[in-house]
Amino acid sequence: TASTWPKKWRRSDRRTRRLNTQLLEAIESHNVDEVERLLNSGANPNATCRLDLVSACHIAAINGGDSLGILAKHGAEKHRLDVLGRTPLHLAAYAGNTRQVAILLGFSEEMQKRVQSEDMSSDVEEDVKKLCPEIQAMVDVRCDDSNVSRTLPSSWKDNIDHSCLQIKGTVCWTPLHVAVSCIRRHSTRLLLAAGADPNIVDAQGRTPLDVIASAYYLDVDIKAENFAEIIKMLTKAGGTYNTMKSKELDNIATPLHTAVELENINAITELLDIGASVSCLNSEGQTPMHLCVKKRLHEPLQVLANYEYLNVDPLSAVVDVKDKDGYTVLQEAVEEAWVPGVCIALEAGADVTLKAYDGQTPVHSAADIGNIDVLLEILSVARQKGIIDCQNEDGETALFKAIVNGNTDCVYALLEEGASIKIKLSGEVSVLHKAAEYGHSEILKILLEHNEGEAMSMIDSLSARDWRGFGPIHFAVMSNSVECVELLLSKNADVRLRTTDSPYFCSTPLHLAAMKNFIDVAKFIVKFDKTTIHEVNSKGWFPLHTASHHGCRDIITLLLQKGADLSGYTDGPRKYRQTAIDMILNTLSMPTEFLSELFDSYINSNCANFHDSNCEINIDYRILIPSVCEMEQMKVIEALLKTGNRYGQRKLLVHPLVKSFLHLKWKALLPFFYVIVILYSMLVSSLTIFTMSVFFYKDTASNPPAFLSPAIWANVVYVSVVLIILQEILYMNIRSKRYFSEMETWIKFGSICLAVILPLSINLAETADWPRHIATLALLFSWIELMFLLSRFPSWGYYVLMFGKVAINILLTFVFIIVGFSLSFMIQFHTQIPFESPWAAFVKTVVMMTSEFDYQSLFDQENSRELATSLIVVRFIFLIFLILAAIVIMNLMVGVAVNDINDLAILGNIDRLCKQVQFLSTLDNLVYNRFFIFILPKRIIEGIKNKRRVVNMIILAPGKPKWKYYKALPTHLREAIFTIAQEKMKQKDNEVNMEEFKKKIDEMHTA
């Protein structure tokens, strides 16, 4: 073991390795004196790198110089293999070091000097040949790493801390392979003279002739001028090839490919002379001629195409050879748009009818790339062959290729040569579909006008379902091409043309534009035919529904400006039907803000100075009353209410546009509301007078005057009831379920029913008390209902709703503590007056909350004796009640009322507007009723319609207080409208200023 070696021996071993390492480095640096010194100092001439087994001879062979001769004199082993199985002879041949080759072959010094000259004489060559029997085994040794031994004598090893020269080898190459691959003319001649076999094959089956100049692909500097001479040497020596035979070794770069790469005409000619095939493919699947085309090598292609080949098929041209994709030389030249190459191929007899493996012909390729010069060259031959309408594997003709790639000149040329526009692809796709799909308006125009409008019969044809089921106009819309849409419509294409049911649900072009948010296309379609906004697809969706579903804000804005209906429903079961405003709120982000900004856009001003007499503010209500529902003007706002308040959308009711519309609508319907108020006032007043005429005079034991006769007023009550019932029947017909879900309805029913029963009950039981109870309830319900009715007035309803809101909140909050105290008092006072029952106790407790505690009577001497056992407890409960109810709760109620007054005002205002919308909607529908239309004269009906209708637009003139509509709106609404108009003008001015600023910056940048 190492621990038992003598120290002197181990020190000597390390010294030898150091010397060996220095020897390898000296050889690499061409320091011959140092090499000599190191060998004399004990360095081993067989010094070898332990990593790659590169010996001193390997390094000396590739580096040249005198080092190899010195190593040989010191007994170096000249045929040592490195880790790749290479001998020094391989490396000497790689570097073209003829003298090193001679040394390694064992030539004498005299012979080494004779073969060293580049112009080696024939005598020297003959003398070398005489040595063949002795050295042939050495010159034919092949790289073979399978026989490499990694075991080295200890004295041969170097240190591991130096780097050896890395030269990649090729398996089974002989030195001759290496020499010819690098075009080492002198080394090749010497090796051949030494008896090297030119037909030994490597692992891929290649002879030296097959690998000539292949080092070019490894970026080795080679002398291309010696290419042809090396070929001659190998051929003269009887060398053959395997790669340049048809259908032999494909996907390998042959010498012919290399000669083309080097543009070496002599080498190309030599290879063709020895029968090299032009159909062999390199690693990229190209033949030598395809390679010429790829690199645009005119002269090499001319030579290859026009060479007089032997043993070729007389019926096919040489240039018809195909690459890996089945492309001929002509088709490759067309793909590269190389006109000279096309001309050479055609002159050589290329067949323009041949197809590639994908069915493409040269005509397809020419139309695809769009080079008109190339196409015209091809068409000059194709015209005679009749292949202009040939289809590839996808069914495409050359015309389809030109259309898809937008090659207008090519399309025109193909049509002039007779290309058919009637051919369709699978799925019934026509040339018009393709032109529109890719948005090529010029091509589409050429197709539509060709041959006196031959294609007009296909202008509305639909493709198959699996091709989207589109017509040309649908494809044009989906490509967002306004020009194509405009052209098709100018040629009488159907603007309402529907797709197939699947996958686009019989959509019109406007539906598709709405789905993709193509605003320019949508603008043009709507401008062409505004009524398309009212078309529905198979799902019952208007374009507005489609835009809303896909969140396309620009299209939503456009369609609403053109009269689309926010309240329009989709088709389907009632449960699943949706309005457009439903979709907007559930699809868009921040929908309430979007709608608010949208409403703002309908208030516009022509100037920022409102004191200017010419200043006008336009208020456009068409978004709220679209033309399709002109007779149902409340429909849009009612649809807004039905969406709920999940996104705070009820705040939109206080928007000046909506609020001013409701105000104008209220004023328009006010006369009809007065009729309803008069009818109900008639009932309330007649019921009140009837009750007073019966009970007041009965209780006072006096006779009523004649005009207060109960019989007269009972009849008036019944007449009022009949009129109100007729009105309510119309109400029920209009409002259906919602009518019965309101408390006001049941109060009204109660008052009507009790009013009907009251006169009868008095006649049937004049002395009984229950008619008095009926009268009490009838009066109470009727006056409450009158209050509800009068709360419809904007100025009153706000307070009524606030009162109701506060009352409900307080009752729901504090009723529990009132019930608790009332029951406690009833128990402690032994169910005595005034706490004789739960109801009496509850009423008394509520009365006590108004500060009427009646402490003296509750705790007088008599009650104190009865409560003697629990007097302390009772007084303690009373004290708690006093603190909680009389002090805390009352002060809390006042505090809440004061602190929340603003919130309550806002909520009360919104609730009032909600009630107003519901009422106006009902009243609007009530006035516009089929029954009235049927029974009333036409002139009266028209008058009613005009009276109840709000105009689409009003104009305010702030500088003209006497303007027609100036007093139509209250001051607070006018101010709110002016504020929005002013903000919009400021925003517009800022945008203009910003544009001017950008323009100036651009001018400064370009100056």
Automatic annotation (TrEMBL):
The UniProt record lists the Ion transport domain at 675-904
The way it spans or sits in the membrane comes to:
Multi-pass membrane protein
Q: Which SMART domains match?
A: ANK
A single GO CC term for this protein reads:
cation channel complex
Q: What is its main location?
A: membrane
Repeats (ANK): which ranges? 84-116, 174-203, 251-283, 358-379, 394-426, 468-500, 539-571
Molecular function GO labels: monoatomic ion channel activity
Q: Which InterPro entries would you find in this protein's record?
A: Ankyrin_rpt, Ankyrin_rpt-contain_sf, Ion_trans_dom, TRP_cation_channel
**Pfam families for this protein:** Ank, Ank_2, Ion_trans
Spans traversing the lipid bilayer: 669-692, 712-734, 746-762, 774-794, 806-829, 872-894
Q: Name the source organism.
A: Pieris brassicae (White butterfly)
Question: Per its record, how is this protein called by name?
Answer: Ion transport domain-containing protein
- What keywords appear on the UniProt entry? ANK repeat, Glycoprotein, Ion channel, Ion transport, Membrane, Repeat, Sensory transduction, Transmembrane, Transmembrane helix, Transport
Looking up SUPFAM superfamilies in the UniProt record yields: Ankyrin repeat (SSF48403)
Tell me where it resides.
Membrane
